[in-house]
Design brief:
The complex is a heterodimer of chains A (631) and B (84). Chain A is mainly alpha-helical and 631 residues long. Chain A is 65% helix and 2% strand. Chain A has two domains: 3-314 and 437-619, Sodium/glucose cotransporter, CATH 1.20.1730.10; 315-434, no CATH class. In chain A, the strands form three sheets. A two-stranded antiparallel sheet of chain A has the order 1-2. Chain B is 80% helix and 5% strand. Classes of the chains: A mainly alpha (631), B mainly alpha (84).
Chain lengths: 631, 84
């Protein structure tokens, strides 16, 4: 079957499954809508958590980021998995015992303050929207590449699907849909990885492929690297020859430390992850469920490191010094007689995520360190669809002939290509010339990753608006302290809020504020500086009071927010970094500030009332968790 | 459960968590970040050890840590009769 028909088939079938599950498991009460009725099996919850967790950023961008960053990319792998240890040991069991619906529920009740609750609601909404914007952009990328539709149409199509199963099904619907999405996603990621591993190293398990020897010889443009070289040696040699930093050696250890910590604490503090542990029946289930979630995540994350290394080797070996014209039109013959088909190069060039600028005029592609275009981060800019002598897409900011200095820096090779990191995973199967069904599977997997995360986030946003903001603050009866909303009207409100959230997310997807991983990193900094400390203190420090919590959250959030906005969006200079901390890692300092401020403020103000201290005593002991209750 | 027993349970819980968190720190932020350059001097089948901890090893350790925690907490819960 044709590639395009296969893609439609795979995407169509998976979408039908998701919608079917949503209809079968639609929510009938607020309890089902917010926490799936609290009766999800821990293994199913682990799988759903993994799907919720592994976003478009994990699936599409992460291997690409690591392929280009090498060793430093380990911060993402450790951060996005190590956070689950914190979650399992420090947060999940206690929050389950506490037994309410949302994270602001915990903050508001534990700190006996509507102000604290409101600050928490604002933080939830802000963090989740930042995160969801990245997802919608991921959906757009996959749709525009694979379904041959416009990015905007793609985003709207994605919104429609999410709308059906999150508005209808609530948490119950998305939990079971996410189980299906996990299966699709993990197949889509590991099958191409196994193919790649076999192709590059003759090893079946990608995880072990890292330790293997290359199964082919290739020329990096400077020297020939013989078959049977250890993969990592081949990679280090090649990137070194081309003027890049060594793949396996870290850059700044300090900044890697800060980034790893922020991603770990952020993972444990993200509302859409925490809320997952409200859905299981018992405290013990919350603990083991975090373990299962990490098992399912680890299957993909341990594969990512290998995929990153394979794809970098593949990129260098397949594009270096090939003649552009024949490469993109049917392919060039390798020395061993196989065909190196570069039609993928043409497809991505069309989308502007890949570009070639024949700087030395030899008609061949050269890849090395340095920029081939004058745009920010070396990005190409276009004016319509003008074509050069070799049929390549022309840009408006192409650099001229290579300078002496450039040639000297990279062993006589001046870089002529721009490769967007976000395309590495999706282009991988094509670069490696894998069968068409693998590519179609990849498309379905990328969509599953983006949609599952988007749905989880939208649900958290709608719950914090309907349940926390309306139910617990705005519509609260002053005397009884109970919500004046009936169950039914709160459920309708929750659905309405989900609709609004989807529309906003769609807008952000069509007008994206930056590339996927960068936007997501922002959400982590804020989560690490707000929820992670406030929940830990709420459980482990009985003396922590509302004054301390509010001061801590405000300082942590404001500091992190201002720092990131100033240095990322307002063009702050690198030289002005506080202690040299990059904005991606600043949440670590925000978190430390939160802890310190909360401690001193709480000690200078009266202790929390006796009944609050009794609540803390109670959540520390697992027995008698019971079902989650409304107020 | 009386206050004294609750206190003892909590102490044991904290001790377990802290022990596991030390391991958590050592395998990730220790081996994969702070001492990555030193560990990179050791190489297995072409893969530098610090690099491996940062990209794969720490993740395996995390999984084991959570299951050890679940197992230990189950024992402690039973000991104090607070299991469900």
């Amino acid at each position: 079957m044709e590639l395009q028909s296969l893609i439609y088939l795979f995407v169509g079938v998976t979408f039908a499954i998701y919608i079917g599950i949503a209809v079968w498991s639609r929510a009938g009460s607020t309890k089902e809508f917010y926490i799936a009725g609290g009766g999800v099996h821990p293994v199913a919850n682990g799988m759903a958590t993994a799907a919720d967790w592994m976003s478009a950023a994990s699936f599409i961008s992460l291997a690409g980021i690591i392929a280009f960053k090498g060793s430093d990319g380990g911060a993402y792998l450790m951060g996005w998995t190590g956070g689950y240890v914190l979650l399992a040991l420090l947060l999940a069991p206690y929050l389950r015992k506490f037994g309410k619906f949302t994270v602001p529920d915990f903050v508001g009740d534990r700190y006996y303050s509507d102000l604290a609750r409101t600050v928490a609601v604002i933080a939830v909404i802000f963090i989740s929207f930042t995160y969801v914007a990245g997802q919608m952009r991921g959906v757009g990328i996959v749709f525009s590449r694979f379904l041959e539709v416009d990015v905007n149409t793609g985003v709207m199509l994605g919104m429609g699907i999410v709308f059906i199963y999150s508005v209808l099904g609530g948490m119950k619907g998305i939990t079971y849909t996410q189980v299906a999405q996990y299966v699709v996603m993990i197949f889509a990621f590991t099958v191409p990885a196994i193919f790649l591993s076999l192709q590059v190293t003759d090893t079946f398990l990608p995880q072990l492929g890292l330790f293997s020897q290359t199964s082919f010889a290739f020329d990096d443009g400077v020297r020939a690297i013989p078959e049977g070289t250890y993969l990592m040696h081949a990679l280090d040699q090649a990137v070194n020859d081309l003027g890049f930093n060594n793949y396996t050696d870290p850059g700044s250890v300090f900044n890697m430390f800060m980034l790893t910590v922020v991603l770990m604490a952020g993972t444990a503090g993200l509302p859409h992850v925490i809320v997952r542990f409200f859905t299981v029946p018992k405290v013990r289930d919350a603990r083991i469920s975090a373990g299962w979630a990490l098992v399912f995540i680890a299957i993909m994350y341990t594969t990512i490191a290998s995929v990153a290394a394979f794809s970098r080797v593949n990129l260098i070996s397949n594009v270096q010094n090939v003649e552009y014209k024949s490469f993109v039109n049917g392919g060039v013959e390798r020395s061993d007689g196989t065909v190196n088909d570069g039609s993928w190069f043409k497809t991505w060039e069309q989308g502007g995520l890949l570009a070639w600028n024949d700087r030395n005029g030899d008609g061949k592609i050269q890849y090395a360190n340095g920029a081939a275009f004058d745009g920010p981060k070396g990005k190409p800019a276009y004016d319509g669809d003008e074509r050069g002598t070799n049929g390549q897409r022309l840009t408006t900011n192409a650099k001229g002939a290579p300078t002496e200095a450039e040639l000297k820096a990279n062993n006589g090779i001046a870089n002529e290509v721009y490769v967007d990191r976000d395309i590495m995973v999706l282009a991988n199967p094509e670069i490696a010339n894998l069968p068409a069904w693998v590519i179609a599977l990849m498309a379905a997997g990328g969509l599953a990753a983006a949609l599952s995360t988007a749905a989880g986030l939208l649900l958290v946003i709608s719950a914090s608006i309907s349940h926390d903001l309306f139910g617990q603050v705005l519509m609260k009866d002053k005397e009884t302290g109970k919500s004046t909303l009936s169950e039914k009207s709160e459920l309708n409100l929750a659905r309405g809020a989900a609709v609004v959230a989807i529309l906003v997310a769609g807008y952000l997807g069509i007008n994206p504020p930056g590339f996927v991983a960068q936007v997501v990193a922002f959400a982590f900094g804020l989560a690490a500086a707000s929820f992670f400390p406030v929940i830990i203190l709420g459980v482990f420090d009985k003396r922590m009071n509302k004054e301390g919590a509010i001061a801590g959250m405000t300082v942590g959030l404001t500091f992190t927010f201002v720092y990131i906005v100033y240095f990322v969006f307002m063009g702050g200079a690198k030289e002005d970094y506080l202690f040299g901390i990059a904005p991606t890692g600043i949440g670590t300092l925000g978190m430390v500030l939160h802890f310190v401020v909360a401690y001193f403020v709480s000690r200078a103000t009266p202790p929390p009332p006796a009944e609050i201290q009794a609540i803390v005593e109670n959540i520390r002991v697992p027995s008698g968790a019971g079902a989650a209750v409304d107020h | 459960m009386d206050a004294e027993k609750a206190q003892a349970y909590w102490q044991e819980n904290i001790r377990t968590i802290l022990t596991l968190l030390v391991v958590w720190f050592v395998v990730s932020l220790g081996a994969g970040v702070l001492f990555i350059n030193q560990l990179n001097a050791i190489e297995i089948s072409g893969v530098k050890l610090g690099f491996w901890f940062a990209q794969q090893g720490s993740i395996y350790a995390f999984v084991i840590l959570i299951f050890v925690y679940v197992f230990k907490m189950k024992k402690i819960d039973e000991k104090y009769g607070v299991d469900e």
